[in-house]
Structure formats: C-alpha cells, structure tokens
Design brief:
Strand content: 15-25%
Number of helices: 4
Structural class: alpha+beta
Helix content: 40-55%
Shape: globular
Strand order of the largest sheet: 1-2
Radius of gyration: 14 Å
Length: about 110
C-alpha cells in the first residue's frame, strides 16, 4: 500500500477530521487539498465524493460543472467526520492497514 492509495488518503482525511472534533480545533481548509496529499485534483475529489456518499463525512457541496457529468466539489467550513466515519476509521481492516503504513512513515496528521 502506497501513501497515495485511496485508503491511506481517506485515513488521513478522516483521522484529521476526527482529531479536530476531539480537540475542538477548527478545520483548516488549507490542509484539505490535493496538494497536501500530492495527488491529482480529480483523484482528491473522487475520494471526498465517496467519503461523503458513504456517510463518513458531511460539509461537502456538489457544484454543477457545465459540460461535465460529474460535479465539482466545494468543501465548506462545516466539514466534519460523522459517527459512521469514526467507526469506519477505527474498525475497517483497510483503514487499519493504512494506519500502519502511515505510522511507519510518521505522516498520519502532519502538523498536529
């Protein structure tokens, strides 16, 4: 599993949002960017879209893009992890593998 794998990036996003909830810190929208994870914008949108559709996060707005069947994504200041997202973060086997990869790289939540 590489640090650009879907589950690794999803883990980092969910872990960051969960840490913000637990500590009462305001979510930094500057952290939640494709550049933070060194990935393509469309891949980042894909990950956020699916985390939202699975009910793991809230605070995403879908913005229609003319001539494109997919919609763009806007992250709002109200983005947060849901209880279902916390459960997924803590009990999913792929999330556990992602955690081990990131623990080795010491990159779970840079800056926190």
């Amino acid at each position: 599993m590489s640090k650009k794998d879907y589950y690794v990036i999803a883990y980092r996003i969910l872990a960051y949002l969960y840490e913000c909830v637990k500590t009462g810190k305001k979510v930094s929208l500057e952290y939640l960017t494709a550049e933070t994870f060194s990935i393509d914008e469309s891949y980042f949108d894909y990950i956020l879209r699916n985390l939202f559709k699975e009910g793991y996060i809230t605070g995403i707005i879908f913005v229609p893009i003319l001539g494109n069947e997919l919609q763009g994504i806007k992250i709002t200041q109200k983005i947060e992890i849901t209880p279902q997202g916390i459960e997924f973060l803590q009990s999913n086997s792929m999330m556990n593998k992602a955690h081990e990869v990131l623990k080795t790289l010491k990159e779970i939540i840079p800056g926190i």
